[in-house]
Amino acid sequence: IPGILDLKNLLLWRNSRKTLIVFTGILLLLLDVMVHSVISVISMVGITVLIAAIGHRLLVQFWSIWKKDENKDQILRFYPHPKIEIPREETLYLAGKAVSHINLILNRMIELLLVEKWEDSLKFLVLLCGINLLGDCFNGLTLLIFGMCICCLTLLYL
């Protein structure tokens, strides 16, 4: 199994550069979770990835304008457009219709992170910033309790 062999090689430090990058990332993530809430950490990772993608997209557009390239599809050439699909045969016993929803969500996230539509990606960036501010104010468990109370109140009044 390739995943287990990669993990074994990672734990045995066979490729020291790769292991150092992975373990440093995990250590920084754990230190960040100690200081900030999990919600803030997840939203900041999303903000960082989205800002890097927007910066890369702007750089590619700048280079195409600077070189006066008339081919507008050149930008799409830099972005492979992977479609994520979970095989239905293996997941029928877990969830029937959930597979199509997961595929839609993952493909939509790829569209947002690859900045296919500027306004959608910028709206997502604003949403992540709002979640980050919310995570700085409240603990994740507190937000779950608030959500549960809101759900119970709405069900009570329906």
UniProtKB/TrEMBL annotation:
<dbReference type="InterPro" id="IPR003388">
    <property type="entry name" value="Reticulon"/>
</dbReference>
<keyword id="KW-0256">Endoplasmic reticulum</keyword>
<dbReference type="GO" id="GO:0005789">
    <property type="term" value="C:endoplasmic reticulum membrane"/>
</dbReference>
<feature type="transmembrane region" description="Helical">
    <location>
        <begin position="20"/>
        <end position="39"/>
    </location>
</feature>
<protein>
    <recommendedName>
        <fullName>Reticulon-like protein</fullName>
    </recommendedName>
</protein>
<dbReference type="InterPro" id="IPR046964">
    <property type="entry name" value="RTN1-4"/>
</dbReference>
<feature type="transmembrane region" description="Helical">
    <location>
        <begin position="45"/>
        <end position="66"/>
    </location>
</feature>
<feature type="domain" description="Reticulon">
    <location>
        <begin position="7"/>
        <end position="148"/>
    </location>
</feature>
<dbReference type="Pfam" id="PF02453">
    <property type="entry name" value="Reticulon"/>
</dbReference>
<feature type="transmembrane region" description="Helical">
    <location>
        <begin position="124"/>
        <end position="157"/>
    </location>
</feature>
<keyword id="KW-0812">Transmembrane</keyword>
<keyword id="KW-0472">Membrane</keyword>
<keyword id="KW-1133">Transmembrane helix</keyword>
